[in-house]
Each structure stands twice: as structure tokens, then as C-alpha cells.
DNA sequence: CTGAAAGCGCTTACAG
DNA sequence: CTGAAAGCGCTTACAG
């Protein structure tokens, strides 16, 4: 640590070439003479040379780092979703020598980080409708990709799961399991996910010719799920329930049980997310799984692409969800 | 983004001073004349100047970033513990202008990141006994802090919770709740946490004059908890159980229930960690809580300190755990 | 207290 | 294909 690292200069001297040539070898420029290249490569390995990133960044104007922006409350960090995003992103950027920096959603900080060239672009997860950050970033023409369809349409790159298709998966499953009186606890209906999941569920039940399901609005929280379940208890006929998030389902399940509904015998329940609560709750939850790691990897790819070619048109990708069947249905 | 950011040079020209003076103002050097300082500050705010970090890093030889090293399997990332660490670290380093970089535990990458001066130091969480990384880092004299006492004693900075005291908290609580026949499902006994929690538990029960508890070794996994609980079923007298991790407890609880043990009526259970499974399982778990956020903040502080003063002796900090009482006891 | 100047370690036109 | 040279945007002794 105290010993100064080897520089390009020294490698060049040892190899008997110019710094430019060493630089070309390090950066894989094809036009270097084979023999020279080998001499340089040997010098690099004997010295253990590794390029100083700050020096490179200074001239290339690239930080070699992207940011993962967390919502300011910091609540999300506790969410297993967050970890899945990280494990999806890391394998795609590491081979590119790009770092992943965690940062809070403070607007100034994010914009500053990019302006200081400490970050080449950012991935935004869990943005709310009121969040001005996405718009600010695209207006500043800074590379950004969202982890979900934006609340209001805008020209921004995003990756999402087909929410409606996921809800339809849940409906189809409940119906094919014999349920005839469906109900759903929705997400907040001002969010795209809340809307799309409800729509997908309603369309699928209609497609099967079943009567209109009972709809109770939730808020994606455990408490919200419990409250909604309480309401649902009033309707004794319900035999199939789609809860638009696993977290709400963990709130709903104990209420349903205390209300005398046996799951899955008398009432089948399907969640959404396949988050860790789905595995831990009792009974373990049948749920709609988003391919979060794959989605995150795609976000990373799109962002890197955008950093390299800021002029390219924005493009978005939608993934197909799958159903994970456990004991609640 | 296309428009080039403002540089020191331009601010200096506008303020009518040298670059050196602007640099001094930006870095808060006290010796700058009041009036000059104000002129410079005005120039900074009108231009919206913000320093280029790569340029600064190049001369200061500081990356202005620390790494949070994840175990290679990537499993840990799904763990809520990880998120708590992040939310503890971020608030202490952001005001210092230091970035938090996520990286996998690949040895070469970590060492390279530090040698390339992309990282000033690292926080290691979830290291195993066989992991050579901690030793490699201290031998290379690179700033590092561990999230727990190292398996083998070495001269390294770490932060830990008083594991034995936490286990004693559990024992005291079970005993004061009327339990007389105690048992414990331990962690893997080759880990410091496994050892210390067992020792603390045994010492506390002995202190109360109770007979030696039943001890079944676990492995900190859900499945391990289930398996150990199965063994425990053989002993009908047990009325108080300390499970050395919440995750194991979530595996144990269903087994105990199916074995006819009612929790908490016939058998009181206490976990360790206060992780999210503790809240989600049925019944919600009384558990020993580690002040993870505080511990993480301290890790960040110690690391930053170490980066600034590599010559200082290593120092470690041990935090006191607390008991969170829920329905399982 | 302030400025001129050197230098941090790279990359990249530009000649040749 | 290769090298000499300029330059990226800062900080920091060193004079004054």
C-alpha cells in the first residue's frame, strides 16, 4: 500500500517501447505488432501492472461506474428484491470493469455524482409517481433506466415484467383449481403495477366467463393486506383470492385463518413477487414470480449501451412472469 | 451531458484569481482571505461548478470510494442483513463524499480494485473461516474491516455484537418466563458466532442453577433448523428453546407444531438476529436483536479512519444486543 | 495570503 | 505500426 503502484511509464521503460504502445496493448488495440505486444505483455505481468482508473477516467471522461439508486426512505434496502437486482447486475458489469455504486435517491446527489463524472448513469428502482427524478434525469440527458414502466408515459428506457400476464396466470390457476368465486386484494391503484395486475386479473376471469370478482384495494403493505382481508371476510362465498403482492398476503393470511377460512382447503390464495415472505409464511404461498435477476441484468446491459451511445433511441424490454406453485392453492 | 462541465480554470477566470485559490476555497482551506473567498464562492454558484473527481483522485491518490464485499455465492445479498448494513453505512460516508461500491468476494477483483485505486478500503461481511481474503488484505496492508470477529485471531479491525451476551439474554428471558428444561439449536460450532452463542447460553443457565440444556448442533439454515427440531421432539420435557438464528427457527417451528408442541403455551422459543423471518413466521418470534445499522455505521467510521491513518493501531468495537419480545415466548 | 508551475498517470490525435 | 507531445482537471509544495 505504501509502495507506489507500477505505472505505464515503468512498463514502457522495461519493455523498451513508448507509453502509447503499452497503452494500446492494455486496451487491446489490434494494430500492435505481435512481437512487440508479447514483449509488453511480459513486462506487464512481471511488474504486475494494473492501470490507474482515475487517470484513465480523466482522459476518457468515463467513470467506469454506474449507480443503483435506492428510494430515500431506505426501506427498500431491506427488501429481498433489492438483493436480487444486485446479483443480476453484477455479473454483467464486472467483466466490463464497471463498478456498481449504491446511492440514495437524493436528487442533488445523483445529479452531482453524474456531473462530477463519478457515475456514468443510473438504474432507478422503486420510483413513485410523484418522484421527479426520472424526468429530471432525462431532461438533463443523463443515462438512466427504470426498473418498471414509468407512471406517466415518457421517453425513458425501462425494464418491466408483464404485470397483467402475471395476474392472468394467477386467475387461470385459481380457476383451473376449481375456484368459482374469485376476489383480489389490489396494489395501490395509482401505480402502474397496481393497475396492470388488477386489469390482467379481471380480463382473465372475464375470459373464463366467471362473474366479476370482489375487488378490495390494498397498498402493497403487510398491514394493508390484513385490513383488506378483514373486509373480505364478509363475503363467505369467496373461494379463490389473488393478492397483488406477497407482502400483503402475509398480512392477509393470519386474518383469514382467524376468520375461520382454511387455506387452501376452503380458500385458495395466490400472491405476487415470489419474495422471501412467500416461502416463510404459513402455508407457503403460490405466487407469480418475476425474473428479477434477468431483468436486472437487462437493465445493466441497456444502461451500458446507453452510456456508450447516448444518441440511440430509448428501448424497453418486458419479461414474462411465471407461476410458482406452493401450498396455499 | 454533451455540454462540457465547468472546470476550476473557468471559475478562476471568472473570479479573477488563480486556480490554486479556487481549489483552496473548494477544499475549505482556512487561510483564504474573506473577500476573495466570497468572490470565488459566487463564481462557483453562478457557474454551477462541481469538481471532477477523477482529476482530484489522480493527485490525492484517493478513490473516494469504499467497497462492500459480498460473499461469492451471492446468496447473502438476499438476506435482509445486507440491506441493514447498507443503510447503516450510507449516512456516514455520503457527507464525506465517499461512494459505496458493491463487489463480489472474488479475491483478485478486490485486490485489483484497491491497487487500481478504485477503492480505498473494504468492508467484509459474512466471511467464513476458510476465506483467505481477510489475511491477504491485511498482509498487503490494505484497509479492511470485518463485520464479525475473525475465526482465527488476527490483527484486524472488526465490529461485532456481544454474541454470548445475546444468548444470555435469551436464557434469562426463558427462565424468567418459567421454563425449566431448556434446549438450544446451535449454529455451526466451527464459527465464532456458533461458539459464542452456545457458550453464553450455557453459562447463563448454569448461573441460574438449572440442569445442563439439551444441545443440538445446527448450521444456520432453515433446513438445519427443521432437522434439529426433529431430534428435539424426542425429549418431551423441554419447555424452553433457544434457536441460534431466526432462519433456523423458521425451519424448526413447523416441525415442532406438527410434533404436537404448542408454541408458546407448551414450549417457548427465542431466536437470534431479528431478521425479517422473525416477523413473518408463525407465531412471530421473540429474538435477540443486533444493532446492525449502528454496527455498520461504526464499520464505515473505522474504515474511513483507517484509510486516513493507516499507521494507527487496529481497534475493534463490540455492541450490546437487545431482546425483542414477540409471541413465541 | 496568493500565484506560477510542476505533476498525478493515463489516452489520443498527429506525424512519420 | 509506433512514438513524441499535448492534454484531461485537479492539488500542492514552493516562492514571494
The count of strands of chain A amounts to 12
Strand content of chain A: 15-25%
- Which term fits the overall shape of chain A? elongated
Q: How far is it from the N-terminal to the C-terminal residue of chain A, by CA?
A: 58 Å
Number of helices of chain A: 13
Question: Going by CATH, what is the homologous superfamily of the largest domain in chain A?
Answer: Response regulator
Task: Offer a few descriptive terms.
329 residues, 6-stranded parallel beta sheet, alpha/beta, DNA-binding (chains A, B), 434 Repressor (Amino-terminal Domain), transcription cis-regulatory region binding (chains A, B), Rossmann fold, 13 helices, 3 domains, DNA-binding transcription factor activity (chains A, B), DNA-binding, homodimer
Structure, described:
The structure is a homodimer of 329-residue chains. In chain A, α1 (8-15) packs across α2 and α5 packs across α13 (292-308). Chain A is built from 13 helices and 12 strands. The relative contact order of chain A is 0.11. Chain A is α/β, with parallel strands linked by helices. Chain A folds into 3 domains: 8-51, 434 Repressor (Amino-terminal Domain), CATH 1.10.260.40; 65-161 and 293-319, Response regulator (Rossmann fold); 163-289, Rossmann fold (3-Layer(aba) Sandwich), CATH 3.40.50.2300. Chain A binds a DNA duplex (16 and 16 nucleotides) through α2 and α4. Chains A, B: InterPro entries: HTH_LacI (IPR000843), LacI/GalR-like_sensor (IPR046335), Lambda_DNA-bd_dom_sf (IPR010982), Peripla_BP_I (IPR028082). Chains A, B: Keywords: DNA-binding, Transcription, Transcription regulation. Chains A, B: This is LacI family transcriptional regulator. Chains A, B: Pfam families: LacI (PF00356), Peripla_BP_3 (PF13377).
